Predict the structure.
Amino acid sequence: MSYYIINLPATRQAQQLTFLARDYPWDTTALQQALVVSEDRLNASLERFDNGRTTRAVLINIVESHTGDWRELVGWTIPESKGAAA
C-alpha cells in the first residue's frame, strides 16, 4: 500500500489539500508532484509522516477516488451551509 502525505498546516492555510512534494521540503497541491510513501516507510517514520498535528497519511486510492469535500480526508468538520430562512 502507498500513501500521500498531507501537510496539515499548509492545507489549513491554503484551504485546499496540500501534500508533501517529491522534491521535499516543498509542498504541492498537484497529485502528480506529491510524495508517495510505502507502508513500510510510513510505519518506520510515523512522527514525520502521520503525526496528526502537522501531517496525515492517506491511502493513494482514497485520495484519488474521493469526490466529497476535501476536509473529510483530514477529519475536519465541514461547516453546514446556511439556507434562507423560511
Remarks:
- Residues 2-74 form one domain.
- The CA atoms of residues 50 and 56 lie 4 Å apart.
